[in-house]
Amino acid sequence: MGARTRNEIEIEGRTLALTNLDKPLYPSGYTKGQAIDFYIRVSDYLLPHLAGRPVTLKRYPNGVTAPHFYEKNAPRYTPDWIERFAVARRGGGPDIQYIVIRDLPTLVWCANTASLELHPFLSRAPDIERPTAMVFDLDPGEGADLRNCAQVALRLREVLQAMDIESFPKVSGSKGMQVYAPLNTPVTYAETQPLAKRIAEALERENPSAVISTMAKAARKGKVFIDWSQNSDFKTTVCVYSLRAKSDEPFVSLPVTWDELTRASKSGRTATLYFKPDAIWTRLKKTGDLFAPVLQTKQTLPAAARSA
User: Which domains, ranges and CATH numbers included, belong to the chain?
Assistant: First the structure.
């Protein structure tokens, strides 16, 4: 094991000690320093989507090929200036002290702990029971791929449009993708989860050879699993603009357009839906934050869903 290196930088009045910046975290050679630099550069796009949301850190201290862990509780060495929000444990016991990332120093501190992936709640503190969006996590089983996910996402969009609900897609930076239906109006998980489940089940009935709405992995072969259960007060979903740690080189969870999904669905060329960190800057300058409407758009669920 090499000697631990340390560099101090000042960001927005906070002094941070960054360690082992040259340490490769991906087999491709992508280093911890590059990951931190990525998060600094993407922060203007990322931070609005993290602000106010308790976050689970997915940490890879020895790189993506070594054991990793999910960190919910703020580590004991978390600086006092980093915001926390207490969330009750489902099974009882002490509250979980989640970190809340509102500013660049906090983001950089988290990245320095080798938190390659950031998984925020769908709700903001202190209204932890009120999700700001309904989400559908599309996960391809063995024999299915991102093209299949795009096809399911396009049909899902049609179903939501019939309910007068606009939706926005993002690729996960791995094999699947997510579709967000922004709400930003008073609503609870007790309303969003049953509706998401009914929609997933309806799409499975409509096309059972391509869609599944149940958790059993053995039944997912060749199908896309629509995970409606992400609409829960104790679950988190990988954040837009987060790095992923699913392969030998880093990819980014990035918003895409419905036109891009349509083209990939028809052509099968899904390589256009995978984005490496260094390749996104020109795109972002051109498109801006395609997920900004998820923060701003106010929509309501159908009356039948709210009374169910």
Answer: 6-120 (3.90.920.10), 133-234+251-307 (3.30.70.3300)
